[in-house]
Amino acid sequence: MKLLLDSSSSLLFSLLLAQLPVFTSASPVPQRRPSDMDKLSNQTRNLMKLTQELLREHAFDSDVEPHRFRSLPEMGNRSANDLSNLELKSTLSQLHADLKLYEHHFEWLNKVSKKHHHPAVPKLVEMIREMKSLISLLHRQMQRVEAPRLTPATPSLPPHLPYQFDVLQSSHELLQHFKLFCDWAYRAFISLKPKVTAVQ
Amino acid sequence: MPGLLSSPVCLTVIWFLSWSLRPSCAQILTDEVSGVQYGHLESNVTLACGKSQIRIPVVWHLNHSSVLPWHKVTSDGSLVLMHVDHSAQGIYSCYDNQGLLLHSVKLRLGHPPGLLSVSCQVPNHTYVRCSWVESVATFLPAQYNASFRGSGQEWRPCVVDIVRKHCDVDRPAFWQTIHTLRITATNALGSETTYARFKLHELLKPDPPESVLVNELEGFPKRLIVSWTFPASWPLHDAFPLVFQIRYRPLGSMYWSEIYSEESPVVIFDALAGHLHQVQIRARDEVNAESQWSEWSPLLLARPWEVFTTPYPTEEVPPELFFPINTKPETSTAKSHNPVLEDEGSLGLVILLVLFSVVILITVLSLIYVMWVRQRRRDHVTKQELTSMVKMKSMPI
C-alpha cells in the first residue's frame, strides 16, 4: 500500500510536470496558417534566393547577350502593367508550363555539370528539388481553381558542351533568366492572392 | 496693253527703276550670309568665293576686317585657312577688285561626334530614362536618334529631349536579362553610334520616400513616430512592395540606429530623452535584392516629448496607439519596436503564469493529500501496535 501511495504521488507529480512544456509552448494567439498562395510565393522566393546564391558563388562576368537557349519562357511580352490585371487561371497555367520548361533545362544543366564535375552540382540538385516542389504546389492550386494544364513547349537544348567554359556560360545564362522569371512569378503570385481568396 | 508696255516712255521708266534699285540690292547682299560652312578644327579649311570660276583677283575679309588667320588664296579665288582654331570662326566675305561683294559665308568649326557616355535611371518597373554626355567636345549642334530593346527584342524608340540630352522609354520589357540602348549622334561633320548595355533589374532605384514626418508621442519621452508615403513614381500595387530603412541618431552622435519596415508609420522606442534627433528614410524594392536603395530623404530633426512640471509617465502604450501603429518592423538592435506584438507577448506571459500557478497549487494540494493519507495510515498502524501491546500485557504469563 505504501509503495502504491508513493508511486501514485510521484506519478501525479510527474504528470503535472510533463504538462508544463505543453502549457509553455501553447501560444495564446493562434498562428495564421499560410494560404496556398503564400506557400507558392514563399517557395518562389526561396528559389530566387537559391538562384542568386548560385550566381554569386559561381560568378561569371558576362554582358554578352544570351543566345544558347532558344526555348526558355518568353519574358519580353510581360510588362509591369500586366501584373495589375492578371487573369487567375491562365496565369497559373502559364506559370506551371514555364516552370516545367525550366525544370527540363535545369535537369539538362545538372547532367552536363555532373559530367564536367562542376562544383555547383549539389546546389543545382537542391534547386531542382525545390522547383519540383513548387510545380507540385502550383499544380494542386490549379486543380483547386480548375485551371487547365498547358502542354509545355519542347525544350531545345544545346547538343554538346565540349568545354567547362561552355557549361559556365550556359549555367550563367540559365540562372540569370530564371532569376528574372522568379521575380516576375513572385509578383504574379502576390497579385493573384486576393483573386484566389475570392474564388474559394 | 501691249502697245502701252512697248512704249518708249514705259521702257525708260522700267530701266530707271531697275537702275535706281540696284545699289540698295547690293547693300542688302553686303550684310547677307549665303550659308554656313562647317570645318574640322585643327585642319585646313577651304572657302570658295561663290560658284564663279572666273579667275579674277579677289579680296577676303573676316567679319568686315581684312585681318585673316594663317591662310593662302588659290588661283580661283578660294581661301585656304591653315590649321584652323576657334579664332578662325566668323563671317567670310570675298570682294572683287572693285569692292563688289561676290560671296559671303559663315564658318563654324568643331569636331564630328564621338562615343557618348550613357547612364540610365530606373525609378520603377515601367519607366527608364537614359542620359548621356559627349566624350568629345564637338562645339557643334547635334541631333540624336535613340532606340532601346531587350535581349532578342525589336528596337523601340527612346523619346529624345535634345536640350537635356536624355531619352525616355515607357513600359520597357523589364524582365529581360540585358537591355541595349542605341544612340546615333549626328552633326554637320559626321555621326557616331553608341551602344550601351544595361541590366535594368540592377539599376532599379526608387525615388526617396515622400511626405516624411517625425513627431513626438505625447507622454513618451523616449519615443518618436516616423511616417512617410511611397514615392509618387512608384506604382501602388501589391506586386511592387517596398522595404524602408529608417535611421536615426541624437544630434551630434556618430552612430545611427536602424529600423526596417514595410509599412508606415514606425515608432522609435529608444530615442534619447530630451535630445534632438536626426531622422532619414530610404526605400528599396522588396523583391529584388539586387536593386538599389533610393537616396536618403532630407534630414529631419525632431525631439521626443518632454515634460517640465510632472514626472515621466510609465512607458505604457495607450490603447489608441494600438490601431494606427500596425507595423512589422525589424531592427538592427535586439529591441522590439512593435507595441502590438509586445502586448501580445505580455498577455501570453500572464496566461502562462496563471496556468503555472494553478499547476503548482494542484501539485501542492496533491502532496498535502498524499502526506495526510500517509500520516493517517501511520497513525492507524501505531494504534494497532498499541492495541496489540495492551492485549499482550493483559495476557497471563
Automatic annotation (TrEMBL), chain A:
<dbReference type="GO" id="GO:0043410">
    <property type="term" value="P:positive regulation of MAPK cascade"/>
</dbReference>
<dbReference type="Pfam" id="PF07400">
    <property type="entry name" value="IL11"/>
</dbReference>
<dbReference type="GO" id="GO:0008284">
    <property type="term" value="P:positive regulation of cell population proliferation"/>
</dbReference>
<dbReference type="GO" id="GO:0005125">
    <property type="term" value="F:cytokine activity"/>
</dbReference>
<dbReference type="InterPro" id="IPR009079">
    <property type="entry name" value="4_helix_cytokine-like_core"/>
</dbReference>
<dbReference type="InterPro" id="IPR020438">
    <property type="entry name" value="IL-11"/>
</dbReference>
<dbReference type="InterPro" id="IPR022356">
    <property type="entry name" value="IL-11_fish"/>
</dbReference>
<dbReference type="GO" id="GO:0005737">
    <property type="term" value="C:cytoplasm"/>
</dbReference>
<keyword id="KW-0732">Signal</keyword>
<feature type="signal peptide">
    <location>
        <begin position="1"/>
        <end position="26"/>
    </location>
</feature>
<dbReference type="InterPro" id="IPR020427">
    <property type="entry name" value="IL-11A_fish"/>
</dbReference>
<protein>
    <submittedName>
        <fullName>Interleukin 11a</fullName>
    </submittedName>
</protein>
<dbReference type="GO" id="GO:0008083">
    <property type="term" value="F:growth factor activity"/>
</dbReference>
From TrEMBL, chain B:
<dbReference type="InterPro" id="IPR003961">
    <property type="entry name" value="FN3_dom"/>
</dbReference>
<keyword id="KW-0472">Membrane</keyword>
<comment type="similarity">
    <text>Belongs to the type I cytokine receptor family. Type 3 subfamily.</text>
</comment>
<feature type="transmembrane region" description="Helical">
    <location>
        <begin position="347"/>
        <end position="373"/>
    </location>
</feature>
<keyword id="KW-0393">Immunoglobulin domain</keyword>
<keyword id="KW-0812">Transmembrane</keyword>
<keyword id="KW-0675">Receptor</keyword>
<dbReference type="InterPro" id="IPR053073">
    <property type="entry name" value="IL11/IL27_subunit_beta"/>
</dbReference>
<feature type="domain" description="Ig-like">
    <location>
        <begin position="23"/>
        <end position="94"/>
    </location>
</feature>
<protein>
    <submittedName>
        <fullName>Interleukin-11 receptor subunit alpha isoform X1</fullName>
    </submittedName>
</protein>
<dbReference type="GO" id="GO:0004896">
    <property type="term" value="F:cytokine receptor activity"/>
</dbReference>
<dbReference type="InterPro" id="IPR036116">
    <property type="entry name" value="FN3_sf"/>
</dbReference>
<dbReference type="InterPro" id="IPR013783">
    <property type="entry name" value="Ig-like_fold"/>
</dbReference>
<keyword id="KW-0325">Glycoprotein</keyword>
<dbReference type="GO" id="GO:0016020">
    <property type="term" value="C:membrane"/>
</dbReference>
<keyword id="KW-0732">Signal</keyword>
<feature type="domain" description="Fibronectin type-III">
    <location>
        <begin position="208"/>
        <end position="304"/>
    </location>
</feature>
<keyword id="KW-1133">Transmembrane helix</keyword>
<feature type="signal peptide">
    <location>
        <begin position="1"/>
        <end position="26"/>
    </location>
</feature>
<dbReference type="InterPro" id="IPR003530">
    <property type="entry name" value="Hematopoietin_rcpt_L_F3_CS"/>
</dbReference>
<dbReference type="InterPro" id="IPR007110">
    <property type="entry name" value="Ig-like_dom"/>
</dbReference>
<keyword id="KW-0677">Repeat</keyword>
